[in-house]
Write a structure and sequence with these properties.
Elements: H1 17-27, H2 30-37, H3 44-54, E1 56-58, E2 73-75, E3 78-80, E4 84-86, H4 99-110, E5 115-116, H5 124-131, E6 136-139, H6 145-158, E7 162-165, H7 176-180, H8 189-196, H9 200-209, H10 215-221, H11 225-235, H12 242-251, E8 255-261, H13 264-272, E9 277-280, H14 294-305, E10 310-314, H15 320-328, E11 333-336, H16 338-347, H17 354-369, H18 374-378, E12 382-384
Parallel strand pairs: 4-11, 5-6, 6-7, 7-8, 8-9, 9-10, 10-11
Antiparallel strand pairs: 1-12, 2-3
The structure holds flavin mononucleotide.
Length: about 375
């Protein structure tokens, strides 16, 4: 017998990703929206993330009545209630001062992972107190040895078990939409007035909580956001390959998940140096306009390293259907970036219920597909049209 749908606690007008995105556009200043929504170049890669997911077709099966779908699974030594988590997204304070803590708290309640960005507006300590446990932590891995050692010692002391070095920012990038919108370390007063004046609620909330900084970097750079930005440019925006990860492996006995792998050969090299997982990701279409979509690279990567390391995937996920598409293509786990942050930009902390929406969609679509667990999902006929 069908059970009544457990509806997420969201206003009725917010039923999908498109609604969150529109709500964000209405509520936050133009420069903040462009930073969150934009890709790079002509946004071809960004559009491809969405269109390549749309092309993944799953043929549903019929099954006899039985137990409801099992969404829980094991990953990186823990059991999670759903096969998705929140990807690292920097500068969440630009969207809403409570975005990252609210999403972290909701993730913990739901039993799903939350990954904090190194360039988050909230310190890892703030996130830990919101969640009641340590998050996963992403890094743009700094060059100086003493900073690396200090980070690892602090992470260990704080109970962080998974660190996630991001590999796909080897140098400067020119993100046209953010540049055009005037986002820089110090936006001009004109941009601030032009964009903020029409958004009084955002201005009020941002003032109330204080201007967002980069606390996780300021720990090492000292000073304010400008010093943190300089530290990042001088020490963290750089190529990182298997040799560097091997050195990290020697120093860190927790889990290492490298983020931003798109080539099967690279995946093989990272497996050889002992990573616990890789995230197949093109950084949400923000680094390379010619990048293939994750659905295009997942099958060859699964073929190369499937079963040898955990394969996580992100890029363009808008709903539970997209989560299941990536799992059906062989990912072990899926991360979502913009979707929950759009929701928080649109409605503040209440937007964290977007994670409940994802969870509900995963359950309902699994039932619709006639699968009882992720293994059965992988046995479905999967086509890329
Ligand atoms: C506004 C924004 C900020 C991001 N900041 C980071 C970051 O600090 N570190 C990182 O590894 N990835 C970052 N990403 C990439 C996400 O972790 C993730 O790979 C991407 O958003 C997935 O695509 P999706 O947004 O379509 O779900 C960011 C993405 C966005 C949209």
């Amino acid at each position: 017998m069908a059970q009544p749908l457990e509806k997420p606690d969201l206003p009725a007008r917010f039923a999908s990703f498109a609604d969150f995105r529109l709500g964000a556009k209405r509520r936050i200043p133009h420069f903040a929206f462009e930073y969150l929504d934009g890709g790079i170049g002509r946004d071809v890669g960004l559009a491809r993330n969405y269109s390549s997911l749309d092309r993944v077709l799953l043929t549903p099966r019929t099954i006899d009545e039985g137990t409801p779908p099992e969404t829980a699974l094991d990953l990186l030594g823990e059991r999670w209630t759903y096969p998705f988590g929140v990807a690292p997204v920097g500068m969440g304070g630009l969207f809403h001062p409570e975005s990252a803590p609210a999403l972290a708290k909701r993730s913990a309640k739901l039993g799903t992972p939350f990954c904090l960005s190194f360039v988050a507006s909230h310190s890892v300590e703030t996130i830990i107190s919101a969640m009641g446990r340590a998050p996963w932590h992403q890094f743009y891995w700094p060059r100086p040895d003493d900073v690396q050692n200090d980070i690892l010692a602090r992470m260990k002391a704080l109970g962080v078990t998974v660190i996630m070095p991001t590999l796909d920012i080897p140098g400067h990038q020119w993100r046209e939409r953010t540049i055009r919108a005037g986002v820089a370390a110090k936006p001009s007063p004109w941009v601030t007035v032009r964009d903020v004046a029409p958004k009084p609620l955002w201005a009020y909330e941002t003032l109330k909580y204080g201007k967002p900084g980069l606390p996780n970097i300021q720990t090492y750079s000292g000073g304010g956001p400008a010093e943190a930005e300089m530290f990042l440019l001088q020490n963290c925006i750089r190529p990182i390959g298997p040799e560097e990860i091997r050195r990290l492996r020697d120093k860190w006995d927790g889990k290492i998940v490298v983020k931003g792998v798109m080539a099967p050969e690279d995946a093989e090299d990272f497996v050889k140096v002992g990573v616990d997982g890789i995230v197949v990701s093109n950084h949400g279409g923000r680094q390379l306009d010619a990048a293939p979509g994750t659905p295009e690279m997942l099958p060859p990567i699964v073929e190369a390293v499937g079963g040898k390391t955990a394969i996580l995937a992100d890029g363009g996920v808008r709903d539970g259907m997209d989560v299941l598409r990536l799992l059906a293509l062989g990912a072990d786990f899926v991360m979502v970036g913009r979707m929950p942050y759009f929701a928080c930009a649109a409605m503040g902390a209440r937007g964290a219920a977007s994670l409940d929406l994802l969870a509900m969609q995963v359950r309902t679509v699994m039932a619709q597909l006639g699968v009882r667990n992720v293994e059965e999902l992988r046995r479905l006929k999967v086509e890329v049209s």
